[in-house]
Design brief:
Layout lengths: L2 H18 L10 H19 L13
Length: 62
């Protein structure tokens, strides 16, 4: 899968997870640990499954 799309998804997950702390008066037990694992897995997937366009492709041209 294209690394650009995976990185965008991982960034969105990270931002939504961070913003979700504002929803709670008192954060549920284990929420930080579970969410941290989800965010870490999202970023690991960028490195493991992400594919670049290739060395011959000029990214400045459409």
């Amino acid at each position: 899968m294209n690394r650009r799309y995976l990185a965008f998804a991982a960034l969105a997950i990270t931002l939504l997870y961070g913003a979700s702390f504002a929803l709670f008066d008192e954060t549920p037990k284990g929420y930080a640990a579970i969410g941290g694992v989800v965010v870490a897995l999202a970023w690991i997937s960028v490195g493991v499954f992400g594919r670049d366009d290739g060395p011959g492709r000029d990214r400045t041209r459409g």
